[in-house]
Amino acid sequence: MSTARFMIERLRRLLAWRRYAAIVAEAAREALGEVEVYVIGGAAEGRLTALSDLDVLLVLPWEPRPEEHGRISRMVYEKAVEKGLPWDYPLNLHIAGPESRREYERLAKRMIRIL
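Structure tokens predicted for DNA polymerase beta domain protein region:
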């Protein structure tokens, strides 16, 4: 596949972010229980490009330790792939609790809650 064709396909998949965000939200709730899920970044702000990724913020009811972030991300990602997320989808999971959520709220221009 040519680079141009690859980038067009990547952007096409990114523009379907609502579908993939819903899969991630369902996977997060199955893996973690009570969790709020938001899309932030380029998708939420309407500025996706072929070089973007989908930024998804998972807000847990507790403040996760930094060393837990990788394990939590891996659990959610693996479950999302089982549910239909392409294994190579450009996804960036952000993990937060009640305190660290405030920093995302302060910095994000827009947060879209995924129900």
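The chain has one domain: 3-113.
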